[in-house]
Write a structure and sequence with these properties.
- 41% of the residues lie in helices and 12% in strands.
- By secondary structure, the chain is of the alpha/beta class.
- An eight-stranded mixed sheet has the order 5-4-6-2-7-8-3-9. A four-stranded antiparallel sheet has the order 11-12-13-14, with helices on one face.
- Strand 12 and strand 13 form a beta hairpin.
- Helix 17 runs parallel beside helix 19, helix 21 runs parallel beside helix 23 and helix 23 runs parallel beside helix 25.
- It is globular.
């Protein structure tokens, strides 16, 4: 595989910028059609409820991948991975809308195509989840807008064009008011294309209720409407006489936006549809004949290197993905990897590894359930249907796994025998060899990739000042001592009090944070633990103070903990404020003493980010203020005045 080092990459990019080539259509055009928030709920994947004739035809004309996976079950970290060819956890961009800086030479793989003379267009999403997103847009795209199209290029020039379809997005499938969905999505369908709730396939992890069925049918309606958009784009390609010179990719950015899909490391959250169609002149690049399937494992970090391989371009050394097509193809993956970190106001840390049969998930915050309250998705009535069912005595084990208050430390699923991941085999004696193998593989991956998720977000901002998290993690003398952080995080939910106490007194503030998390997850606190946590309320690191206060308050020790949380709402570091606001939100009535501070904090966030600010505004400080506001407003809705 041809790789180029970062230094050589910068030199080549500089030379290319002085005089880009013009590439004619002797090389393939590449078209990417990306759907939002969609699992493989397509007819060509065997879903009998789906009505997707255009995508089904694409599969008949192309190669269908049955083991394609996102690296994150949410959009921004996934795009951060795709654009630069390495997972967000390697870049330090794993937290949703965090905008951490990355090295300047990571300009997006399309910039290499553009420098070589390709016309590159992006319609329209640029949710790259890093502080360099504007430089990536400038370097990568000739045009990035809702009008961007290959038709804007010079006649005969090769192109790489991306169309991002929002029609299957969570907003449309479950969040918008139903009337808006009917007006803007369902109205585009023929009567015969509208899905009947009576026939909706209700998975066992949902209660079978009219609201659930109506929402599932609504989701499938959105998929059908999206399929029509795919058909229209492919028809434009035919009309322009370009179908015989263009390799077409269709895929989604992660699993569907439905509960237990988006945000979850289960197959419902990470497994995606992927279809690649090769015209006759480029059939030699196809892994098999048209209309065939492959069970080859592919991951989002492979997508950029694969396009570079198909177009004969060198692959930068920093990219971790492996091409699965083209001249540089040759590496067969044994595993793909996933990560779950903060999404909006919801804090978490979990990692996964998947081979062709088994899925292993390691939850580092097992005291936090899968179905945590979250402001924006909670606008959907299906979420409240699940909340209401969780309060009854009628939950089944699959329903309790998602809607219950905690998660297991480890999860292991046989995805061939159990494709919906309903039976956790982590405790099965018959599967201990697989458990240990997958556990060891994940441990190796965390270290080899220098996974940056184990340093709390507010501390990461402080530690990486003047540099980038990526560079920090790879410096010969660095402040990111990953092994001790992973060790401390791994003790949560299973460590001893003495281990937590030792962590809480460690010189590394990241380890001290995980010591406090260990006590938050503990069933009870001894007097010694209470004394240590009380002392930690004066810690220099805000994450340590906040999590120590959380541990005390969760165990009914409010004497100083709530006032410490209230004080944290005044921090300048908005990542720390968001941490404190989320803790207060989840504590609920236990934190009522903080109501005046929450009210003041909410007002401060509205000053930073006024209510009329567009949710598409990419300013990182505005996003942080928005996520703080999600938690403060949720608390005020329950206990204070709007």
């Amino acid at each position: 595989m041809t790789r180029i080092s970062p230094l050589l990459f910068m030199i080549v990019s500089s030379l290319a910028a002085d005089g880009p080539h013009v590439v004619e259509e002797s090389v393939p055009n590449i078209l990417w059609i990306t759907a939002e928030d969609m699992s493989p709920t397509l007819g060509c994947y065997g879903d009998d409820y789906a009505i997707t004739p255009n995508i089904d035809q694409l599969a008949s004309d192309g190669v269908l991948y049955t083991n394609a996976f996102a690296t994150a079950p949410v959009c921004s970290p996934s795009r951060s991975c795709i654009i630069n060819g390495l997972p967000a956890t390697s870049q330090g961009t794993q937290q949703m809308r965090s905008a951490f800086p990355i090295p300047g030479y990571m300009k997006g793989f399309p910039s290499l195509l553009r420098d070589a003379g390709y016309y590159t267009s992006n319609n329209v999403k640029t949710d790259y989840n890093n502080g360099n997103w504007e430089a990536i847009v400038e370097a990568s795209w000739n045009e990035s807008s809702d009008q961007a199209h290959w038709r804007s290029r010079e006649e005969g020039k090769a192109f790489f064009s991306v169309f991002n379809l929002m029609t299957s997005h969570q907003s449309r499938t479950m969040v918008w008011p139903y009337e808006q969905f009917v007006s803007e999505i369902q109205s585009k369908l023929e009567t015969s294309e509208i899905h009947s709730p009576k026939s909706a396939p209700v998975p066992p992890y949902y209660p079978d209720t009219p609201v659930i069925r109506k929402t599932i049918a609504r989701f499938y309606d959105c998929v059908t409407a999206m399929d029509k958009e795919v058909g229209a784009i492919l028809q434009q390609l035919e009309d322009d006489g370009l179908a015989d010179s263009t390799i077409v990719f269709f895929y989604s950015d992660h699993g569907s936006g439905m509960p237990r899909h988006k945000r979850a490391l289960l197959d419902s959250g990470l497994k995606i549809p992927l279809i690649v169609r090769f015209p006759e002149r480029y059939q030699h690049l196809s892994p098999s004949e048209s209309g065939t399937r492959t069970d080859r494992l592919v991951s989002f970090d492979d997508f950029g290197p694969t396009v570079l391989s198909l177009t004969g371009k060198a692959i930068p050394e920093y990219m971790e993905g492996k091409p699965f097509l083209g001249k540089a193809d040759g590496f067969l993956r044994e595993y793909t990897y996933g990560h779950r970190d903060r999404v909006d106001e919801v804090h978490d840390l979990a990692r996964s590894v998947r081979d062709q049969r088994f899925l292993y998930i390691r939850n580092f915050m097992p005291h936090l359930g899968y179905n945590q309250p979250t402001a924006w998705p909670d606008l959907g009535e299906i979420r409240h249907e699940i909340y209401a069912h969780a309060k009854t005595e009628f939950m089944t084990d699959p329903q309790r796994h998602f809607a219950g208050p905690i998660r297991p430390l480890e999860e292991l699923y046989d995805c061939q025998a159990d494709p919906q991941n309903l039976k956790n085999l982590a405790g099965s004696p018959a599967h201990q060899d697989n458990l240990e193998r997958m556990r060891a593989q994940l441990d190796k991956r965390l270290r080899d990739s220098r996974d940056l998720g184990f340093i709390p977000e507010a501390l990461a901002w402080e530690t990486s000042k003047g540099s980038t998290p990526y560079d920090l993690a790879r410096a010969s003398q660095n402040a990111y001592q990953q092994s001790r952080l992973i060790k401390a995080a791994s003790q949560v939910g299973q460590g001893s009090e003495n281990e937590f106490l030792a962590n809480l007194e460690h010189s590394d503030p990241g380890v001290r944070f995980w010591g406090a998390v260990g006590f938050s997850a503990a069933g009870s606190l001894s007097d010694k633990a209470i004394d240590a946590l009380t002392t930690a309320l004066e810690d220099a690191a805000p994450n340590v103070r906040i999590e120590s206060a959380n541990a005390l308050a969760r165990h009914g020790r409010n004497e100083r903990s709530i006032s410490a949380l209230a004080s944290a709402l005044e921090e300048e570091n908005l990542a720390a404020v968001q941490h404190a606001a989320r803790v207060i939100e989840l504590l609920g009535e236990k934190a009522i003493e903080a109501l005046p501070a929450v009210t003041a904090c909410n007002a401060r966030m509205l000053t930073i980010r006024p209510p009329d600010t567009s949710p598409l505004d990419p300013d990182p400080e505005l996003d942080k203020a928005m996520f703080v506001g999600f938690s403060t407003q949720a608390f005020l809705n329950r206990f204070g005045s709007n």
